[in-house]
Amino acid sequence: MSKPKLTDTLDFPSDLNITKSLFGVGVVGLLASGIGYYLDHGQFFFSYLVNFTFFSSFALASLFFVMVQHLTRSHWSVAIRRIPEAISSNFWIWGLFIIPIFFGMHTLFHWTHADAIAHDPVLEGKVPYLNTPFFIVRQFIYFGLWSYLGYSLYSNSVEMDETGDWGLQTLMRKVSGPGLFFFAITLGFASFDWLMVLDPHWYSTIFGVYYFAMSFQGLFAALILIIFFLWSKNLLTSTIKKGHIYDLGVQLFGFTVFYAYIAFSQFLLIYYANIPEETLWFLERLSGGYEYLAYFYLFGRFVIPFIVLLPKRAKSNSKVVGSISVLILVSHFVELYWIVMPVLDHHGFHFNWMSITSFFGLGGIFLGLFFRKFKQSKMVPVKDPQLESSLNKH
Fold first, then answer.
1. pLDDT, position 1
2. Most buried residue, 4, 78, 217, 223, by most Cβ within 10 Å?
3. d(CA 95, CA 60)
4. Where are the transmembrane segments (predicted)?
5. Is 73 left (phi over 0), alpha (psi -120 to 50) or beta?
6. CA neighbor of 155 nearest in space, from 140, 142, 165
7. Cα separations (Å) of 25 from 18, 280, 323, 365, 371?
């Protein structure tokens, strides 16, 4: 077999001004949402939270993906690894966007109300954990750790491009080992803090894994669409091959099943235990119009993807994989909306335009940060010793 060669241009084109366009969309979206704040600040904070947890999920899943690839010494993913590396390297900036949630805590979280705690023994018992100062400190811990891991892995990978020092591989594995342990803990607690404690009387011990499963499934869909975008601009067309899309399709299918297993496990345990404190959370989300959102994401991120991606040929069909990826990302957003919004609109489903403006606001900034970082270095880890094996994908 002939030795594969890099024939693509590995520098992001300087004349492709996508970064400015994305930041422009982000600023306009955030300004529009800011106007909405003065019209209905409650709706603003809940719409903001949905979108913050949506885009944060991709950054978190990207960080996990990169650490796992280093620990397993994976070959297949080297050609695409710079994409999740660039995404997860921006935590130190992305963490600033949790600040609006600090200002909206009294609106978002019932447990911040002193009068509610005084008349509720359940909330009173949770005060050592559910209190404003500790909540804020925890966010600094989460984003501090994630920022260190993401930036460290990205910077070492880029340094290897420049120096060719393969010893940096060992360093990145040493970072990834303990990093995965602390990542799992902080991800679980972050999912509790952002989403589960919106209803402080309800809890699920599997909720952290549930949010992780949603996030990781969504990441593979996002990676596929980013690669298709790069191909549409004639970038990396000979480096990232159909074999890589097939592998991403396999991963997408596998984590579709994993997500369904976790989500159904959470539902089934609460269903058959039939404890009022637990079932009420689902009852509010399976009535008043919210049940249609549940049906949508059930079919959109499990039933349809499972059936369509089951045949081997489907996983290497760009049109099929791309369409399913879009469907999964839409369903991912819908499911997070389904989790958050009943706390605000508990009398029934009501969609508000601020969910869209917040989506474009935070989405434009998130993608702008990604492409800004992505274009600062080679789009592929050019001196990774396993790159040759990755280029052999067919």
1. 43
2. 217
3. 12
4. 21-39, 45-68, 89-112, 132-154, 175-197, 209-231, 252-272, 292-311, 320-339, 351-371
5. left
6. 165
7. 11, 39, 24, 8, 14
Task: Classify the phi-psi angles of 164: left when phi > 0, otherwise alpha if psi is within -120 to 50, otherwise beta.
Answer: left
Cα distance between the two ends of the chain: 12
Q: For 292-366, where are the E strands, in sequence order? A: none
User: Which of 393, 222, 250 is CA-nearest to residue 309?
Assistant: 250
Q: In this structure, which amino acid lies at residue 306?
A: F
Mean pLDDT over the full length of the chain = 93
Amino acid at position 323, single letter: S
- CA dist., res. 358 & res. 32, Å (int): 8
Q: Name residue, tokens 């959370």.
A: 281
Average pLDDT over residues 34-56: 96
Chain centre to alpha carbon of residue 293:
20
Give the CA distances from residue 95 to residues 52, 53, 353, 394, in Å, rounded to whole numbers and listed in that order: 10, 12, 25, 39
Asked if residue 252 lies in contact with residue 321, where contact means CB atoms within 8 angstroms, the answer is yes
Helices and strands, number each (H, E), in the chain: 18, 0
Tell me the percentage of the chain whose pLDDT exceeds 90.
Answer: 82
Q: Judge whether residue 2 has pLDDT over 60.
A: no
- For the segment 248-262, what is each residue's pLDDT rounded down to a tens digit? 999 999 999 999 999
Question: Which pLDDT tens digit goes with each residue over 6-21?
Answer: 667 888 988 888 999 9
User: Which among 212, 249, 211 is positioned nearest to 227, based on CA atoms?
Assistant: 249
Rounded to whole angstroms, the Cα distance separating 392 from 193 reads: 43
Alpha carbon of residue 180 to chain centroid: 16
